[in-house]
Amino acid sequence: MFQSYTIKDIAKALNLSTSTVSRALNGSHEIGSETKKLVLEYAEKINYRPNPIALSLKEQKSHSIGVVVCEVANNYFSQAINGIESIAYNSGYHVIITQTHESAERELANVQHLLSRQVDGLLVSLSAQTVDTSVYEQLHSKGFPIVFFDRVAQHIPTHRVVVNNFDAAFKATESLIKSGFKRIAHLTSTSNLMISQERFKGFKAALEKHGLDFPETYFRQCNHGGVLKDEIEQAVEGWMNLPSPPDAILSTNDRLTTGCVPILKRLGYKIPDDVALAGFTNSDVAELFDPPLTVVRQPAFQMGQMATELLVKTIESKKAVETYTTEVLETELICRESSVHA
Amino acid sequence: MFQSYTIKDIAKALNLSTSTVSRALNGSHEIGSETKKLVLEYAEKINYRPNPIALSLKEQKSHSIGVVVCEVANNYFSQAINGIESIAYNSGYHVIITQTHESAERELANVQHLLSRQVDGLLVSLSAQTVDTSVYEQLHSKGFPIVFFDRVAQHIPTHRVVVNNFDAAFKATESLIKSGFKRIAHLTSTSNLMISQERFKGFKAALEKHGLDFPETYFRQCNHGGVLKDEIEQAVEGWMNLPSPPDAILSTNDRLTTGCVPILKRLGYKIPDDVALAGFTNSDVAELFDPPLTVVRQPAFQMGQMATELLVKTIESKKAVETYTTEVLETELICRESSVHA
DNA sequence: ATGAAAGCGCTAACAG
DNA sequence: CTGTTAGCGCTTTCAT
């Protein structure tokens, strides 16, 4: 380890006791101002840094927060992580990121790993495969700070940061309808996720408002949230081989949206002429696609920030937090050619 | 903090001393097999987990490694981080990620933050603005484990993981030439970075091999590595207003490559008819662009893995490491329409 | 106003 | 084979 000075070194050098030094460093007012000055100056001179590990052991706090997401290499999450880091950093916490790759097993392992690392709190976005959220329930009931963002656990009353998923899907669907599409398919992740359910509800509501049918065959879920290309391919192929194939697709996550495009192309379908596409994604380059993609964009960075602020507040609150907020942010619908007849 | 059992609890429950318990837990052979079994079983039963913070304090090791990159929301780096995590996780290290946003100042602050966090080693990819690498030099000379990847510090003899940048740029440039482009511009990051220099050398070598000119006006650097859109815009606009504008561009990093496209489009230039484009990027969706992009892809995931392996090995080696390796991986050139005359 | 000492959880001499 | 003890760096009573 990279050796640095300790409080003991200072004490020895200045012929003081460690406790005096400690107090001086912490600005206690029961220390003579001369002594204090002496200590502070010397500490400055040797560039003294308190050992955070020793502090953690003492305080029973690790000053770190654990993050559970499906994937870092995902536009939404990398942006959210950015927001998380920005707040965590300024609040004196460091961030340990773990990836589930959409596996519930992996998620549980990650949580346990983070707990054994003594994280002070958890920032989690569930995996697509997660059904059993009892770990979180238990932790939460024991007073352990958890904040969910985006993919929240349904029945656990923690702080949450989400977007208005219903509205987001509603808007996107309505825009497809207004562009003249009538047979709209719905490509989504597992219905384990509340966001999937809500986005589907918004979608359905838009169809209903405009008196459109929704045959069951137009609904397809990808159990791995689009991590596996096969699942997307099967969905798309299944649709296009239908007697009456859809003329548009609404996809409800990053992976699915960007994953759809190459598959449609490879199968020889033109977007939007053969089938239109609109979907959730935080990709910065969706406008560069051929055709430019109509997208629903979430305020990922801000969501990361808010979630972290809430978590830090919970961690640092003296008394048990009793009331939990659910922050609901708005999304942005950006219409481009993929959803407009040429 | 989420309270868990300690070695003391076990000792008390079993009427043993803490040291006996400790030894039993660590499988010492100087412990009676009965006692050992007893301890192990009880520990299992109460789901005992050693406190990593106490361990760290004792061992003077934090079991964490610090990562310094410019940006997480960058295809190359998010993939590299994936590789880093995979190895770190399996080796019992956790990863603290920091972002420089291409600022040298920020980089220094990050390094200091990581050091004060007592990381056991550093995995770094320099920021585009970094000129002064003396922090690393000092650390390295004191025996602190550092591995550079991708953007390495020139004169510090640490382990390194890079790609064959010369060759990568050479191949890409030659492919442009073979497609008939003759006036090829070079869009790059600051020349502080060795990768910029090497990629430029490869570029020049290809031009020379084919007897092509390279007017100085065709060389443009972005001091913020493309983080600021303006810098790219200025470069591109400058070129296109030249009496003899380039007919192709080679861009040498992720941000620059994907940043070029919308600017060219907005200015009304068709790719590749008005100007062709080939560039370094690890984007997964470059083939979906309009037009599909010709790219140089680095084995980011693998680079992250190798760098982490080297770092862990360095951290854990008993004796000071004396010989350092530079791992050089190959890139992949994927030719698509952006660099081929229609 | 300052020092001595205990203790956070764990390991490792040292003693038996 | 097992227990006692000191110590990692720091804070915090409790004395003085």
TrEMBL record, chains A, B:
It comes from the Bacteria. InterPro entries: HTH_LacI (IPR000843), LacI/GalR-like_sensor (IPR046335), Lambda_DNA-bd_dom_sf (IPR010982), Peripla_BP_I (IPR028082). SUPFAM superfamilies: lambda repressor-like DNA-binding domains, Periplasmic binding protein-like I. Keywords: DNA-binding, Transcription, Transcription regulation. GO terms for molecular function: DNA-binding transcription factor activity; transcription cis-regulatory region binding. Residues 5-59 form the HTH lacI-type domain. PANTHER family: HTH-TYPE TRANSCRIPTIONAL REGULATOR GALS, LACI-RELATED TRANSCRIPTIONAL REPRESSOR. This is LacI family transcriptional regulator.
